[in-house]
Design a protein that fits this description.
With about 375 residues, the chain is an alpha/beta fold. The protein is built from 13 helices and 14 strands.
């Protein structure tokens, strides 16, 4: 009976919600900040940061980069050396316990003599989920979870969505005047937002695997759609075009720069064959399908099959409206310039069917507003997004 009572007390303590200290919070914030350094360098894997610490002192730290093979935990442990024995490992995501491209991170933590592991959340990858924590606990290491879990999931929102759905996380970016226009009535659109906002857009492009526009935007603007952030990235930004009738010119900026970054065009089966051959001769990849450009879910499925973890939509109004009407957008960023364009014929930022009533309008949550020189960047998540 006494043994049973003791066991029950142990179970109660083990299931109790951890009490986080200021040191715990500071170290986890550091681990999350380290993880962000892997932006553009980890897909299709997750962003991971690790801090090895004892009390207030950081003994080692690291973050994951896909091409470097070694995981964040291993890099941090190598820095800490023998000092890691008895220390705490703060990891921004559950350590993996399976053999993949590298040996299990849990083995490295165990071998180093780590006494406690603090991680915000389980890894949704079915090869990992819960197994890493179970492996550590099974060998007597104290594991505590839940600290800054929401921040950790948001930091890895692209990876989490991809693991759960097999599709890319979709982020819609819009740039408009104060009265919601994306161009004048004559089609002039350069530049509505200022240089600081445009620099920020390239930072966004750096964080994504692919960028998508419609045929109308390609014809009107002849864009490059490249990542000009100046930051190193693991894979080139895939430029995706929805072009049912194959209007893209072989002389366009997109077609002429396929050596710099891939171009993938979704078109219908009846599109012009000679144009297709000319574009393919420039290195453009063509996907012919009756639903291409119409069935956006299929487009996302096909991109997911190519390990595209994240997708940034940059235009135009019809494409934005289609994705919003289909309920396929997770996140929205709107850059608003302090100017009034006016004009009934000047195009608005979002077309499509839209809401019939105000009650049907799409609402954003977790809204963040940042001033970018004279512009405003407003970012939020759609209320139907469960990420």
């Amino acid at each position: 009976m006494l043994f049973y009572i003791v066991q029950q007390k142990i179970a109660t303590v083990g299931n109790a919600k951890p009490v986080w200290t200021d040191i715990d919070r500071r170290m986890m914030e550091r681990a999350l900040n380290l993880a962000e350094r892997g932006a553009g360098l980890v897909s299709p894997g997750p962003l991971v940061g690790c801090v090895i610490a004892r009390d207030k002192k950081i003994l080692g730290e690291g973050f994951y980069i896909f091409e470097d093979i070694k995981h964040a935990e291993t890099l941090a442990l190598e820095q800490a050396g023998e000092l890691a024995r008895g220390a705490t490992a703060y990891v921004s995501l559950e350590p993996h316990a399976h053999f993949g491209r590298t040996p299990p991170c849990t083995d490295a933590l165990i071998s180093a003599g780590i006494a406690r592991v603090v991680a915000p959340i389980e890894d949704p990858n079915p090869k990992v989920s819960g197994r890493g924590f179970a492996h550590l606990r099974g060998l007597g290491i104290q594991v505590e979870t839940g600290l800054m879990a929401r921040e950790a999931e948001r930091g890895n929102e692209k990876y989490f969505n991809y693991m759960r759905t097999g599709r890319p996380f979709v982020h819609l970016k819009l740039a408009m005047s104060l009265d919601g226009k994306i161009a004048t009535r004559t089609g002039d659109s350069r530049w509505i937002t200022g240089q600081v906002s445009r620099t920020r857009v390239h930072q966004l492009r750096h964080e994504y695997d692919a960028i998508l526009i419609g045929a109308g935007t390609a014809l009107a603007d002849d864009p490059l759609l490249t990542d000009r952030s100046g930051r190193k990235r693991r894979r080139p930004l895939i430029r995706v075009l929805l072009d049912e009738t194959l209007q893209l010119s072989p002389d366009s900026n997109l077609a002429r720069t396929t050596a710099e970054a891939p171009v993938l065009v979704f078109t219908a089966r009846g599109a012009e064959t000679e144009k297709e051959l000319a574009l393919q001769g420039k290195g453009v990849d063509i996907v012919r399908d009756e639903s291409s450009g119409r069935d956006l879910s299929r487009v996302l499925d096909l991109l997911g099959n190519h390990e595209v973890q994240s997708l940034l939509i940059e235009g135009g109004a019809r494409v934005a409206g289609k994705f919003l009407d289909a309920g396929l957008v997770h996140k929205v960023s709107v850059f608003i310039a302090p100017m009034l364009i006016g004009g009934r014929e000047a195009p608005g930022a979002i077309a499509g069917s839209g809401a019939e009533t105000i009650a049907d309008a799409l609402h954003l949550r977790e809204v963040e507003v940042i001033q970018r020189d004279g512009d405003l960047e407003i970012t939020g998540y759609l209320a139907n997004d469960e990420g």
